[in-house]
Amino acid sequence: MGQPNLYPLTMEFEIDGAVSDRSHTEFGIRDVTSDINASGGRAFHINGKNILIRGGGWTPDMMLREDSQRLHDEFPLRPRYGP
User: Fold this and answer.
1) Is 77 helix (H, G, I), strand (E, B) or coil?
2) Which one of 9, 30, 54, 64 is separated from 46 by 20 to 30 angstroms, measured CA to CA?
3) How far apart are CA 18 and CA 44, in angstroms?
4) Rounded Cα distance, 42 and 53, in Å
5) Taking the mean position of all CA atoms in its chain, how far away is CA 35?
6) Cα(42)–Cα(8) distance, rounded to whole angstroms?
7) Which among 38, 40, 73 has a CA at the least distance from the CA of 58?
8) What does the pLDDT average to over 9-36?
């Protein structure tokens, strides 16, 4: 998500003043954090940007056993994200 911050890294190893091995790569550092938002749900951030992670929390029965009262009871239990 977002522009990756990649940094170049070159390493050289010397033996008796001569380079014996050299390697070059690019690497990035990601900062992953989370907190509890004002709605009481967990909010995740990658490199300081909000990210919504879905799944594993609430799933209806995919039209198998629709029950209007059960849905009415369950909807308030879902975490709310965003403004």
Assistant:
1) helix
2) 9
3) 48
4) 10
5) 12
6) 34
7) 73
8) 90
First CA to last CA distance, the chain: 20
Euclidean distance between CA atoms 20 and 46, whole angstroms: 39
CA distance 58 to 74: 9
The answer to whether 53 and 42 have CB atoms below 8 angstroms apart is no
CB atoms within 10 A of CB 67: 11
Q: What are phi and psi of 75, to 5 degrees?
A: -55, -40
**pLDDT digits over 46-77, tens only?**
778 888 776 655 555 555 666 778 767 766 66
Continuous H helices in the chain: 68-74
Q: Cα 65 to the chain's mean position, in Å?
A: 33
Would the pTM of this model clear 0.85, i.e. be above it? no
Q: Which two tokens stand for residue 63?
A: 């039209």
| Pair of tokens at residue 24 | 């070059």
Task: Please identify which residue in the block is written with the tokens 């879905």.
Answer: 54
